[in-house]
Amino acid sequence: MLTEEEDKPGAMSSAEKRVVAIVFASGQLAIGDMIRKGVVLNLVSTVVITLLCYSIVAFLW
């Protein structure tokens, strides 16, 4: 059963929280690094999904 906080869209599961805690505890990745990498990943995924949608619409049209 999910807690109310875990039931929200985009919420991290307890397993994901453990992984993030281990990464931060190791000291090899700072919060700023993770934020930058997350922003880049979001931008890249947005472009890929947009291009995929345009390709599917162009194919079906």
Topology:
Elements: H1 14-26, H2 31-60
Account of the protein in words:
The protein has 61 residues and is mainly alpha-helical. The chain is built from two helices and no strands. It has one domain. The model has no long low-confidence stretch (mean pLDDT 85). The chain is 70% helix and 0% strand. Keywords: Membrane, Transmembrane, Transmembrane helix.
> Distance between the terminal alpha carbons, to the nearest Å?
43 Å
- Relative helix content: over 70%
Given the structure, what is the number of helices?
2
> Biggest sheet: strands, sense, closure?
none
Keywords: Membrane, Transmembrane, Transmembrane helix
Q: Could you list some keywords that capture this structure?
A:
2 helices; mainly alpha; 0% strand; membrane; transmembrane; transmembrane helix; 61 residues
Compact overview of the structure:
The chain has 61 residues and is mainly α.
